[in-house]
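User: My collaborator sent over this chain with a note saying "see what the structure looks like." That's all I know about it. Can you take a look?
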Amino acid sequence: MAKKQRYPKPVKSKDRCKDQTQHDHPEHLEFLPRLKRAQGQIQGIEKMIQDQRYCVDILVQFRAVMASLRSIEVKIFEKHLQHCLSCALHSQDKKRIDEKILELTKLLVRRTSL
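Assistant: Without extra context I'll predict from the sequence alone. Here is the result:
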């Protein structure tokens, strides 16, 4: 049996809003096991393609991987709103707030222009 890889437990973000730097953001280590699972699913799709499996079966697996990645994406986005945007708003620094609004606007434009 393969040894299960252990990841460090995520560190809860302290209230860093007062002196937040650009590199100060929450940890996302808790998502590593879920990403590893998605990698395994992708490897499964590769094998299905090599084995010339039925198209619909492959497409079903694609949807499963995409749903898994989307779930992780939403959780990280939620964390960004709860921590990074919240800290910018709490700071009442107009420049920081405007930067976060622009950042989110660009992110949403990229997401919806697929």
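A starting point for your reply to your collaborator: The chain has one domain: 29-112.
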